[in-house]
Amino acid sequence: MSGTAEFVRVCAVNEVPDPGTLAVDLNGTPVVIVKSDGEIFALDEFCTHEEVSLADGEVYDHTVECWLHGSCFDVRSGKPTGPPASKPLATYQVRIEGDDVLVAAPAS
Amino acid sequence: MSSLSGAVETAGPISRLHGSGSFDPADFAVPGGREEEWRFTPLRRLRNLHSDAPLEAGKVGVEVSADSDITVVRSQHGDARIGTALVPSDRVSARAFAGFSEATIVTVPPGVVASRPTVVNVVGESVEHAAAGHTVVEVGANASAVVVLAYSGSATYADNVEFVVGEGASLSVVSLQDWADDSVHLSHQAALVGKDATFAHTAVSLGGSVVRVAPSVRYGGPGGNAELRGLYFADAGQHLEHRLLVDHNEANCRSRVTYKGALQGDGAHAVWIGDVLIRAAAVGTDSYEANRNLVLTDGTRVDSVPNLEILTGEVVRAGHASTSGRLEDEHLFYLMARGIGLAEARRLVIRGFFGELIGQIEVPDLADRVMTAIEAELEKGLS
Predict the structure, then answer these.
(1) B275 and B138 share a domain?
(2) Contacts of A51 in chain B (CB under 8 A)
(3) Could you report the per-residue pLDDT of B72-94, keeping only the tens digit for each?
(4) Which structural domain, as residue segments, surrounds residue B348?
């Protein structure tokens, strides 16, 4: 992400459970907001293995785990940490302003 | 005794893929993506064709060019010719059936041998409004025809196509999905192959964002012969899916399914599901299905699933094959050792790979067009 990316408000901080997830729409891109140990991250919503929303996944130790086949991703880097997924998720910059969660929208 | 009776084979098929179907969309729940028949399809890219997108008239134009012996009429719901070969087997098909405003019916009278291919041009104007279509091709007893379904333009389109092939007749169909990059197209193409009739169907899927074509065959009498062929070239981000069903419900029928595809670019996804059902009554069945995939770059994905359900042991043959792999180094080495450059060697091998199927397209202009399109795809991949 470039430093000049446009930040878009996607939700309020307290809308995301800790630990937990929230599916949001980032200018048409499905993104999942993940809260782990009080920190907030934004990643592609869908598992790179099959079309499964990670918003239904489980969050622990900076990991989001897909409920269906158990693919794990590090929420900080998007990298797969457990099979069957082998491709990383795209990650998005997050900025907290007051109660709002802002995410850097990809250049269209 | 109850445990014994449970072990006896009954006449009905076991798998739920071949349920009876329905013309009423309400009989199908909105898919959530985990269903067996939807699990490979990116539902969120279907622009709600699978749920509740309104289907509007006039957004996709249908023009037919045919021999003078062949009649082409437009018809509405209630026409007895509609719904004879096809019963919708999923929600999109049922919605398209309930939602089309005008069906195109092409009739080849008995005994007529068409002198030139009938071309049905289906052209989309925009992806904004979803549309539904219905086409029926009837071929009378002992008649013979070639029909090209050519899909192009930009559309969000669901359609059903029915082929009714009379006794001893011959019908060869090419369904060309040459959509613009933004199109979404879901198509069910069902054939009822009469006694001793021959049906050939070639699906060519090149363009479109999401294309899901489901050709199916069942037989109206013994001695039917069905050849289902397909070729596809998936580019970055493209989802091309083909779901075949051959329902051997009559004795002494033959079927061959051969699908070949190539994939290149990030997110290129091809799905091939080949279902063959050989019912208990279908003794003497001769069936074989194969899917071959060439993976040209990293980042692509192929799902290839042959399913056979065989309810009688009295068959001539019932086989299947599926392969997915990259270009063989030895093939390339052989050519390069003769002074041919890598790019040209790749082109030659891929030409050979598809050549078997393209050579069987009975319309020379179309065969050339498909080969040119594949060469253009390869150029894109090499540049």
Answers:
(1) yes
(2) 33, 39, 41-44
(3) 999 999 999 999 999 999 999 99
(4) 327-383
Same domain, B230 and B357: no
In this structure, the number of other CB atoms found within 10 A of the CB of residue B326 comes to: 11
pLDDT recorded at residue A1: 45
pLDDT of residue B178: 95
Name B280's Cβ contacts closer than 8 Å, sequence gap at least 6. B9, B11, B311, B312
- DSSP for residue B113: B
User: Beta strands B71-75 and B130-139: pairing type?
Assistant: unpaired
pLDDT in tens, B41-71: 999 899 999 999 999 877 899 999 999 999 9
Whether the complex's predicted ipTM is more than 0.90 is answered with: no
Whether B289 contacts B274, CB under 8 Å? yes
B45 touches chain A (CB under 8 A): no
Q: Which residue of A has its CA nearest to B266?
A: A87
Which residue segments constitute the domains of chain A, with CATH numbers given? 6-105 (2.102.10.10)
Task: Return phi, psi of residue B377, to 5°.
Answer: -60, -40
pLDDT reported for residue B4 = 60
Burial of B331 (0-12, 13-18, 19+ CB in 10 A): middle
Q: Please give the pLDDT value at position A105.
A: 84
Nearest CB to B44; choose among A30, A50, A68? A30
Query: Distance from CA of residue B133 to its chain's centroid?
Result: 16
Average pLDDT over residues A24-50: 89
For chain B, the domain total comes to 2
Residue B257 pLDDT: 97
Taking the Cβ of residue B12 and every Cβ of chain A, the question of whether any pair is shorter than 8 Å is answered with: no
Q: What is the CA radius of gyration of chain B?
A: 21
Its pTM stands at 0.89
CB contact under 8 A, B44 and A68: no
